[in-house]
Amino acid sequence: MSIAENIARVRANIAAAAKEAGRNVSEITLVGASKMNDADACRAAIAAGIDVLGENREQEMTKKLAEHAYDGAPLHFIGHLQRNKVKNVVGKVAMIESVGSLELLSTIDKQAEKLGIVQDILLEVNIGGEEAKSGFAPESLEQAAEEAKKCANVRVRGLMCIPPVAEGEHGSLPYFEKVHALFVDINAKLYDNTLDILSMGMSGDYEDAVRAGATMVRVGTAIFGARNYTI
């Protein structure tokens, strides 16, 4: 299957899940997670109408930016971002989806101030309480959102999550539902319902994410094929 055919199939699945949930498919943005795929693969996805491309690694993103791999589509940073790499990402991407600590939030705000811009971000929720993953614990999310509101050079657009590895079919759904509830609560309480992005769901569970209210899904292998981790 070509990248274009894969995108078409993923979009059909998103449309079916949206219809099942009584939602309009136009509410859902498809991010092509292009980690470990070359510039030509990114260009093929853009030619096939991908909404957004998302990168996990700053070094790979920087290389592909130099190759103009993302021309024609917005670029998001969707992976764990180290604070010493922030200067290479802020202002280069339309959105940083993975802001999961107050220290990272502050570093992004300061770099954006230096550049004279406002950087769009999502607050990452560690919904499974996993030590190996970054993100705000659900109980500290409201405080983080309040701190983010104080940052003049950061604009929170919504939330993002990566749930624990699913056990069985629909195993991610309870986590997605919890994050959706947090999104609704914080949106009403702190943002006058102006937050518009709930980014959750990847290749194995994006349909359940749509059913649970995601407005953005990040799909990699189902679009680009299996990644080769040996290189």
Throw out a few tags for this protein.
38% helix, 17% strand, TIM Barrel, alpha/beta, 8-stranded parallel β-sheet, 231 residues, 8 strands
Q: For the record, what is the CATH homologous superfamily label?
A: Alanine racemase
Strand arrangement, largest sheet? Answer: 7-6-5-4-3-2-1-8
Q: Which strand-content bin applies to the residues?
A: 15-25%
Rough shape?
A: globular
Overall pLDDT score: 96
SSE topology string: HEHEHEEHEHEHEHEH
In the CATH scheme, the class would be Alpha Beta
Our measurement of the CA-to-CA distance between the termini, rounded to an integer number of angstroms, reads: 23 Å
Largest sheet: 8 strands, parallel
List low-confidence stretches. Answer: none
Number of strands: 8
Q: Briefly note the CATH topology name.
A: TIM Barrel
